[in-house]
Amino acid sequence: MDATGKNHVYIDSLSAMKRSLENSYELNAAVQDETMLLQGLGQKSRDYVTFAGYLRNDGRRRFKDITEIINHAVDEIEGCDSARASAIYLQTLRAVRLQSRWAKILELYSKQ
Hints:
Distance between the termini: 51 Å
């Protein structure tokens, strides 16, 4: 496989990861929104209903940070040699993992 083919493998992998993260985020946000709405409608003593929580507000910003990391890596990989593309790919995986962990921690503490 030539360098261009290897680069496309990295790009396809990052694009698939981005789509997976997008679908997971949207599903989790929808479930959280509906859960909060049902809880608010079910409790008689509440004066208000929460329609959007962490995922729709701060979580969206964290999610956009992750997608920007992936988009930047894809742009870099398109114009470089195979060795550099491999390094960018690995660096991107580590950065996404770190950002995802921070997002999970922030989400956990936002519920308290």
